[in-house]
Design a protein that fits this description.
CATH class of the largest domain: Alpha Beta
Structural class: alpha/beta
Helix content: 40-55%
Distance between the termini: 48 Å
CATH architecture of the largest domain: 3-Layer(aba) Sandwich
CATH topology of the largest domain: Rossmann fold
Largest sheet: 5 strands, parallel
Strand order of the largest sheet: 2-1-3-4-5
Radius of gyration: 30 Å
Length: 328
């Protein structure tokens, strides 16, 4: 047992050392941020084409993530493998583009071979490297420097701390560019329609029931007639919006209201709906976020919310099922 415990302690100590080395490396990047980083940000913001990210090996994998982060936060980007580029994919680069080349040593042969052709095509070059006197750095228009990094690998060979630093600096670039573009929550939702956050950031008007799917009855109508409206409305939402003579929302009558009348033995189908309807119906505007509609449904434990305009005239209806469908 003691031997096993000693072994576990040794393994955990080594793991902690790796985490510590990588954390210290990333923290050290803060002091390396200078005018070159600001230059890179301004180049990306001003770019009218694509940020074409390239790299090979582990740096290439980091490059793919950087490209994905840029693309998902408002900066058109693609990843171009340097070997494939030299076999025809070079056609993906145009004179409006920026080539963001990722290489710790700055001497990766495949990446270096791509620089000349990219320059001939008119693309500008930004290097993300740990060697500012490398071939890549010398041929770049701008250099993002991670510094000379001590890897967490005991042989100082396997890319570990260096790739973490590259990833962090790439994230810093993407996030500062995002801020400069004033890229907001709604923009993010546009690029993430299938994600949980993206769905929650959809507008109410995108999911609400509208037209003949909205059950509307007049104040002063009999409960019988209101129930008929509810039952005949496509989708049978289980509620009717009650409006006054001017078409403004004044109440809501739900299946729950009907059930409560029945349970109390007070149901009279000839009774006016005004006597039993809810007189303070929860409502929301069409430009509000679905996230807000979800909050109202949960907070008030209701199944329907009226969607109204500035004059309180119904435009639609949000049913709890509509929100659940969005969250699937």
């Amino acid at each position: 047992m003691a031997g096993t415990q000693d072994r576990h302690e040794r393994l955990l100590a080594r793991a902690a050392e790796v985490v510590r080395i990588e954390a210290q490396t990333i923290a050290g990047l803060e002091s390396r941020l200078d005018a070159r980083f600001a230059d890179a940000v301004e180049r990306v913001v001003a770019c009218t084409g694509l940020v074409v990210v390239t790299g090979v090996g582990k740096a290439g994998l980091v490059g793919q993530k950087i490209s994905a982060t840029l693309a998902s936060t408002g900066t058109p980007s693609l990843f171009l493998h340097p070997t494939e580029a030299m076999h025809g994919d070079l056609g993906r680069i145009r004179d409006r583009d920026i080539l963001l080349a990722v290489s710790n040593s700055g001497e990766s042969a495949e990446v270096i071979a791509l620089l000349g052709p990219a320059r001939k095509l008119g693309a500008s070059i930004v290097a993300l490297t740990g060697e500012t006197d490398s071939t890549l750095a010398r041929h770049a228009d701008c250099v993002l420097d991670i510094g000379r990094v001590q890897e967490a690998c005991p042989m100082n060979l396997a890319p570990t701390a260096s790739t973490s630093a590259m990833l962090a600096l790439g994230d810093a670039l993407a996030m500062v560019v995002l801020q400069e573009r004033k890229f907001g929550r709604e923009d993010y939702a546009l690029f993430h329609p299938a994600g949980t956050l993206g769905r929650k950031l959809m507008k109410v008007r995108e999911v609400m029931r509208k037209g003949d799917q909205v059950p509307i009855a007049r104040s002063g109508a009999k409960i019988r007639d209101v129930v008929l409206v509810m039952n005949r409305t496509p989708g049978r939402p289980g509620a009717a919006l009650i409006v006054d003579a001017s078409g403004r929302l004044v109440g809501i009558f739900t299946h729950g209201d009907l059930s409560r009348l029945l349970e109390r033995d007070r149901l009279d189908m000839e009774q006016l709906v005004d006597e039993s309807m809810g007189r303070s119906p929860k409502s929301i505007g069409p430009e509000a976020l679905v996230e807000e509609a979800m909050h109202l449904l949960r907070e008030h434990r209701i199944d329907q919310i009226a969607v109204i305009d500035g004059d309180r005239r119904p435009l639609g209806l949000i049913d709890v099922q509509d929100v659940l469908d969005v969250r699937v």
